[in-house]
Hints:
By secondary structure, the chain is an alpha+beta fold. The chain is 21% helix and 29% strand.
Amino acid sequence: xxxxxxxxxxxxxxxxxxxxxxxxxxxxxxxxxxxxxxxxxxxxxxxxxxxxxxxxxxxxxxxxxxxxxxxxxxxxxxxxxxxxxxxxxxxxxxxxxxxxxxxxxxxxxxxxxxxxxxxxxxxxxxxxxxxxxxxxxxxxxxxxxxxxxxxxxxxxxxxxxxxxxxxxxxxxxxxxxxxxxxxxxxxxxxxxxxxxxxxxxxxxxxxxxxxxxxxxxxxxxxxxxxxxxxxxxxxxxxxxxxxxxxxxxxxxxxxxxxxxxxxxxxxxxxxxxxxxxxxxxxxxxxxxxxxxxxxxxxxxxxxxxxxxxxxxxxxxxxxxxxxxxxxxxxxxxxxxxx
Length: 338
């Protein structure tokens, strides 16, 4: 295993042994190949540079106490990449090629999968881009699909500790009938200005409201929003929200725990009624929200008054991570052992 300070890794890129790539030309995908190059050569008129033909994914590999390396619901990432790519009129590699390439690149870089007790993971980033030259607004003829990996620590420096969030009514992450449900780069570029503003104001991230009415909760920064009220797990339902695989899993765990799951429109006025609030996604799993500030009303909604995550969020977090690391039996069929 590679010698890194595993317990003090940030969520940032670190070089590994190599990445894996394949190319689509004339509608046919090439055989995937491992390369040590960290660079991509593109035509100056490539569609990914001018017309945003790029989609990506994010998933992780976990080392268990038994030393084995596990993937968590990677096939769901393959399905989502396919759906995102097709919506942007891109040729997609297919689920089996996606899975095969993930396994190959993780195996090749296995020495960079952090130890079981380090709190770190191997982050896996698949990327699909249009590479052929187009000056008019057209889909590309040719595509590159690559996957790189890098060991990472917690997404938020606080780890599994409550963070502060501010409601942003001045910016929208995605349009109501736009690309919000896809994992395309443009959605994240659109969030950078509000992310920069909220960081300067001392907040970890922002809470988006729906673009049409500013009445319903959308996403929590780059993650899905969820709340606990009594025995209910509540999360927004909207075409503008990326269908999070982590959120999907938490909903299944909540049902398994006997909770009621409500996936529906969630009014911003409900914030005062929740017992717990969190953001969830691959990078952080769950980020408990300690308080939400609404600059329009001056209200602050507080949840983790003792400075600790809520009991239900903690139980869900520990349960999901235990499955990911192989510490608990996977009765859902989510794990793929490399």
